[in-house]
Structure prediction request, 320 residues.
Amino acid sequence: MKKMIHSLIIWFGVALLSVAHSAPAAPTVPDYPAEKLAEHTYVIHGPLGYPSKENLGFMNNPAFVITKTGVVVIDPGSTLETGRMVLRQIRKITQLPVTHVLNTHVHGDHWLANHAFSDVFPGAAFYGHPAMIEKAKASEAATWLKNMKSMTGGASEGTKAVIPDNEVIEGGSLKVGGIEFRIYAPEKAHSHTDIMIEVVEDSVVILGDNVMSKRFGRMDDGTFRGNIVACDKAINIKAKHYIPGHGQSGSVKLVKDYRDYLATIYSEVSKHYEAGMADFEMKPLIEKTVSAYHNWSGFEDEFGRHISLAVLEVERAEFE
Prediction:
């Protein structure tokens, strides 16, 4: 009996130490409401800005479409807890299973929340552009997991990369429960791995980060000319509703506003480059021409980089 008691004491002590030294649970992402955009389509608008301790990594626009047979989720977010939050909002509307998850591009703030849906719906099918899948497997998934953990102060702890294993390409489509999802894959746009998704019956286009509303992001992985073509492609769909990767959804005007910024930057940089000016010399001149965008989130962080990147792109164009 003494030996048994002694063993129990040791076991209990080890258990306590294990609990004391285990990693704390990641904080729960608070609920953001799902807004009904069309008959079948809902969007959760995340806050503007970059992943941080304050937003716990949630800052994109997850969308979901309720079909007759199941739910299709597009860009569920950046962390396991974000995905769980999205699922909570889905469950307030329907008990149908999530059958498909589509990811618009390789940047992890849009797709690392796949983890939450693979846990609950192991039979769900995950889709992405072939280049997105390739890059995620090569290094991008690991890089984004590391960066997200650092930027959020550990709020993404426990998130695993569930990389899509089904490819979607330009001109393709999926039909799920009576709803058609048309795929547009503009080349060299925001990330070289991009898709846009038209929910045909609802006249909705989910743009990914090819378009943002009242918010700027990095252009390091894309091109201005390619992104302008992506905007034109989206405009020509003539949909009623557009969901940007970040910022509020709206009409085609939000696409035109973003396109105008990109086109102005590239044309102005081209003009000043031909005049022999360096990026730092043209920056104050171009800043005046885009005064309507000064209050957009991220302008101070990204505008200078946009000028420098556009200069590099103009230089490359000379040799094409």
